[in-house]
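Problem 12. The chain below contains 200 residues. Write out its predicted structure in token notation.
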Amino acid sequence: MIVIGLTGSIGMGKSAVAAMFMAEGVPVFDADAAVHRLQGPGGRLLAPIEARFPGTTGSDGVNRAALGQAVFGNPEALAALEAIVHPVVALDRLAFLRRNRARPMVVLDIPLLFEKGGSARVDHIVVVSAPAWKQRRRVLARPGMTPEKFRRILKLQLPDAQKRLRADTVVDTGGAKAATRAKIRQLVACLRAKQRRYCS
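Solution.
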């Protein structure tokens, strides 16, 4: 089984590319979706998060605004949250890999693939990228997003140019969706043909 690591900075179109992989029949593990589920009502992360950050959870799960306030701009608090979240998400990812072990390939959609050392655990790295102006426009159109919050998020992420240099495949989402879809279809066909070293 080929494990594809899918990553890209905020606003680059990674979710759209993940959906394109799924449309080609490739199972996708979405790390962000796993976190949302594990932090949702009855989720495994609620109790440890509440213990460390009192008042940030409730019957509906984690209050993301309250938790964000507690950790943003506070490296120590952020590290404490990651120490709670990452091991549980890793177990969820392992269960996904076991369920799909007979598949020819899977995708691990991990936003901080490089930043948290996950690139060593995948076979082929796909970086989703777009022009900076388009990234900014996409991100600032999100509800509750501000230029300052956008800047803080970017500081936590490896610059796009460095991600592109480390990629086996760069997928440009700055143009037409049809072109991006064709790129994913071509990559999946190449990987299925077991020609990984030639797939770009």
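Discussion. Strands lie at 2-7, 28-30, 57-58, 61-62, 105-109, 124-129, 169-172. Students who got a different answer should revisit the alignment rule from Section 12.3.
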